[in-house]
């Protein structure tokens, strides 16, 4: 770990960012170029003291998870992210971990969607970022670990994953998920994360295994959805998606037809979000 160069690199990227670049208000007079240290810490979901110590060359050896969070908070490009990993002593950043990194351009768009129900997901159904309204609509989908990070995996192993969808819609969602896993398994190969999820599901879920053998194929990744919200009732929503093929990620925004009952309920999500427990 090159502590001095790591600190200098973090500082240079922090000073190159402006509040508008990350969806923050500029506020009053600023005494420092770019973002403040505490702003980077918040954007990276870490304590302010931890980040300050890194910039002052006295911090601990950051884990790969911490580095990925810093890369996200500082809106680093993929090349800059790899450089950050090398400075921290990880000579060969795991290629599989690249799916954790969100393209800076997509992050800028995401930052401007705080008033919408939006999230960044991988093709394997792993939610990387959510707006507060997305959390209010779907629950916190970033809190899972292991294979359970994938909604595709939870759909067949955790009954709660289906609870917000009307039961009569389950068969179509099930086939869509299996078709998507078939596509990713074929694309990524037998040593991929997709293959690991598929192998686990073939063992754990007879339902998955039966549909897997049918080789379902579909083009629509995010068709219209009906969501049974515990407080607002049924919402009929559309999914608008922005695709980043290099990162195998999608920015998904849930919308409703203007003037519809679902549109009114979607607007009420802001009230619901304010009443939720704060995310840690």
Quickly list its features:
280 residues; alpha+beta; 434 Repressor (Amino-terminal Domain); Beta-Lactamase; 5-stranded antiparallel sheet; 12 helices; 44% helix
Please trace the helix and strand order, writing H or E for each element.
HHHHHHEEHHHHHEEEH
What's the shape? globular
Number of strands: 5
* Biggest pleated-sheet summary: 5 strands, antiparallel
- The count of helical stretches stands at 12
Rg for CA atoms:
20 Å
Terminal CA distance: 29 Å
CATH top level of the largest domain is Alpha Beta
Q: Helicity, in percent?
A: 40-55%
How many structural domains? 2
- Mean pLDDT equals 86
Query: What is the topology, as strand order, of the major beta sheet?
Result: 2-1-5-4-3
Low-confidence regions: none
CATH fold-level topology of the largest domain: Beta-Lactamase
Structural notes for this entry:
By secondary structure, this protein is α+β, with helices and mostly antiparallel strands. The chain has 2 domains: 3-101, 434 Repressor (Amino-terminal Domain) (Orthogonal Bundle); 106-275, Beta-Lactamase (2-Layer Sandwich). Helices cover 44% and strands 12% of the residues. It is built from 12 helices and 5 strands. Strands 2-1-5-4-3 form a 5-stranded antiparallel beta sheet. Helix 2 packs across helix 4, helix 8 packs parallel to helix 10 (193-204) and helix 9 crosses helix 10. The chain is globular. The two termini are 29 Å apart.
Q: What's the topology here?
A:
Elements: H1 3-16, H2 37-43, H3 48-55, H4 64-73, H5 78-87, H6 104-111, E1 117-122, E2 127-130, H7 132-138, H8 151-157, H9 170-188, H10 193-204, H11 206-212, E3 225-229, E4 233-244, E5 249-255, H12 261-275
Antiparallel strand pairs: 1-2, 1-5, 3-4, 4-5
Helix pairs in contact: 2-3, 2-4, 4-5, 7-12, 8-10, 9-10, 10-11
